[in-house]
Amino acid sequence: MSTSIILLCLVVIGAVAYVAARSRAMAVSGGRSAALHSRPAYYGAYAAIWAVLPSLIVLCVWLAVSPGIISSSVRGAFPDDVKAQPAVQQDLAYSMVATVARGMNLLPPDELSSLSGNPAGLQAKLSEKGVPLAGEPQPYMIDAAKALNAESMTSRVIMTAIVLLISVAGAFYALRSVAPRFRARNRVERVMLWALLVASSIAILTTIGIVLSMLTEAGRFFAVVPFADFFFGTVWDPRFAGAGGSSFGQFGLIPLLLGTLYIGLVAMLVAVPVGLFAAIYMAEYASPRVRSISKPLLEVLAGIPTIVYGFFALVTVGPFLRDFSAQISGLLTGNYTNFIQAQSVITAGIVMGIMLIPYVSSLSDDIITAVPRALRDGSLGLGATRSETIKKVVLPAALPGIVGALLMTASRAIGETMIVVLAAGVAARIQLNPFEPMTTVTVKIVNQLTGDLEFTSPQTLVAFALGITLFCITLCLNIYALYIVRKYREQYE
After folding, report:
1. Secondary structure of the chain as H, E, C letters
2. pLDDT tens, residue by residue, 323-339
C-alpha cells in the first residue's frame, strides 16, 4: 500500500472516530450537551487526534528509518571484493542496484524471470521502460536488486499493518474515554499548544541551522583569507588555481557591497514615490469601487516572477535607455553615441523599483488606513483641506509604520538576484556613474556556486562569506524596522 493510500486511510479512520466520539458523547449525556464538561466537538476532536496522530508519528519514523536499515542489509550482502572498494564506489554500486530494482518493478514477472541471468538483456529492456543504466549490471547487482525489492515490500506491508492497527487502537481508546466529566477540551487544547510549539520550534531551528551552516563554511574561508582582505578589499578577482596558478586571487567585498547599495538606492528612489503616492490615493481619495479594482491590479506586480522582470529589463528597458541616450547625445553633440549602457545601474534600479512598487504601496496603504478616523475628522472639522490633513496629520501619524515598511522593502531589494544578473551585468567595479554596469553580492554568490564544484577552495567558500554578510545586512534592516514600528506605534493608538 502506498504512502498516500495509508494517509487516506488515516483520514478516514480519524473522521469515523470523530463522528463516533461525538455521537457517544451525546449518548452518555442523554442528549443534553450541558451535562458534558466539553462540547461534543471536543470529544470528536480528541478521538480523531488519537486515531491519527500516534499512527502518523509511527509512519514518519518508519519512512525515515527503514530505508537506512534496508540499505545496510543490501550492502551487507555485496561480495567481499565490492565491500573492499572505497565508499564512493560502493555508493555508485548501490545507486545502480536501486535503479535496477526500480526498473524491475516495471517488468512483468515472466519477462523478469527470463532476463534474470542476462544482464545485457535486462539493461536493454529497462532502457525501453525509461530506466536507463550507466553500464551493464553485474550479476550480484541483480540479486541485490531482488533483495532490495523483497525487503522494501516486506517493510511496507509491516508498516501498513502497524500504522493501521495503531490508528484503530487509538480510536477505540479515545472512545472508551468518553464520559460526561471527561475533560476533552483541555486535552485537545494541550495537543494544539504542543503543535504550535513544534511549528515555532521548526521555524526557529531552521533559521539557526541556516546561520550555523553558513558560519561553518565561512569560517573555513576566513581560515585561508584574512578578514581585512575580505571586508576592506577593493578588488574582486577570485582566480581559480587552474587559471592563476597557486594564487587564490583577491576577494574584496567593497565593490560588491557598493553595487548592492547603489542599485538598491536607485530602486528605492523609483519605488518609494510611486508606491507611496499610490497608497495615499487608494487610502484617502479613491472610491470603494476604484479601490477594489486598482489595489488588486497593483498587487499583481508582486506575483510576477523576478526572472520575468529580468527579461523585461534585458529586452525593453535596457535597449530603450541605450537608444534614448544615443538620441540625446546626437541632438546635443551630433555624435550618436550612447552614454547609457543597456546593462547598467539605472536599468536594474528602474526595473527593480517597478518590482518593489506593490510592496511599498500595499504596506503603506495598510498603515495609512490604520490611522484613527478621529484624527482625520478633527483636522477637517478645524477647517483644514484634505491635502493639508494628509500632510499635517495622517502622514505624521503613519510615518513610523511607513519607515518600517520602507526598510523592509530595502532588505527585499538588497537580496534580489535575477534582475541584477540580466540588467546590471556581472562586472565588480567601484564607480559612481549610474549609466555603467555594476554587480551585487547575490550575483557573485550565484557565480561562485555555478557548476560542478566542491566546497574545498576559497573560490567556492567565499559564497558563504558573502551569504552571511548579506544575511547580517538584511537582519539589521529588519530589526531596525521593527524597532521603529514598536517604538512609535503606541503614540497614535
Report:
1. CCHHHHHHHHHHHHHHHHHHHHHHHHHHCCCCHHHCCCCHHHHHHHHHHHHHHHHHHHHHHHHHHHHHHHHHHHHHCCCHHHHCCCHHHHHHHHHHHHHHHHHHCCCCHHHHHHHCCCHHHHHHHHHHCCCCCCCCCCHHHHHHHHHHHHHHHHHHHHHHHHHHHHHHHHHHHHHHHCCCCCCHHHHHHHHHHHHHHHHHHHHHHHHHHHHHHHHHHHHHHHCCCCHHHHHCCCCEECCCHHHHCCCCCEECCHHHHHHHHHHHHHHHHHHHHHHHHHHHHHHHHCCHHHHHHHHHHHHHHHHCCHHHHHHHHHHHHHHHHHHHHHHHHHHHHCCCCCCCCCCCHHHHHHHHHHHHHHHHHHHHHHHHHCCCHHHHHHHHHCCCCHHHHHHHHHHHHHHHHHHHHHHHHHHHHHCCCHHHHHHCCCCCCCCCCCCCCCCCHHHHHHHHCCCCCCCCCHHHHHHHHHHHHHHHHHHHHHHHHHHHHHHHHHHHC
2. 888 888 888 887 878 88
